[in-house]
Amino acid sequence: MSLLNQLFNRGLQGSKCKTCLTLSISRIKLLQNKRDAQLKNMRKEIAQFLQAGQEAIARIRVEHIIREQNIWAAYEILELFCEFVYARVPILESQKECPTELREAVASIIFAAPRCSDLPDLLHVRNLFAAKYGKEFIAAASELRPDTSVNRTIVEKLSVGAPSAEVRLNLLKEIAKEYSVEWDSSNTEAEMSKKPEDLLNGPKPIAAAAGASLEPNTRGQNPVTSPNGNPRSKSLESPTSVTKAPLWPTNIDKPSFGDSNLGDTVYIKKDTRTETSDVLERARAAISAAERASTAARLAADLVIEPVYVNLLYSCHISPFISSLFLNLKSSSFKLTILYRRCLYKFHLKRN
Question: Which Pfam families does the UniProt entry name for this protein (predicted)?
Answer without folding.
Answer: Ist1
